[in-house]
Design the sequence.
């Protein structure tokens, strides 16, 4: 598979994707980013109350804390 350098550069600039990055890695990165944003938004909406934020996201408190740490 040959990749045009201009296309590769565009992907790097827009999405942090570099040549050799697998689709699985791209998906994992996107999921992590979405989870981080969801946790931050839920905390903001709930005034920093972690229990309420966990309920808002529909996850257990333990899972919420795990997502908060990573």
Sequence:
């Amino acid at each position: 598979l040959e990749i045009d350098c201009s296309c590769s550069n565009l992907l790097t600039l827009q999405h942090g994707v570099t040549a050799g990055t697998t689709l699985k890695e791209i998906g994992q990165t996107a999921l992590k980013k979405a989870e981080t944003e969801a946790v931050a938004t839920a905390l903001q909406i709930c005034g920093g109350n972690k229990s309420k934020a966990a309920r808002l996201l529909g996850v257990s408190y333990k899972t919420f804390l795990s997502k908060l740490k990573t």
In short: Helices lie at 5-15, 23-45, 50-57, 61-69.
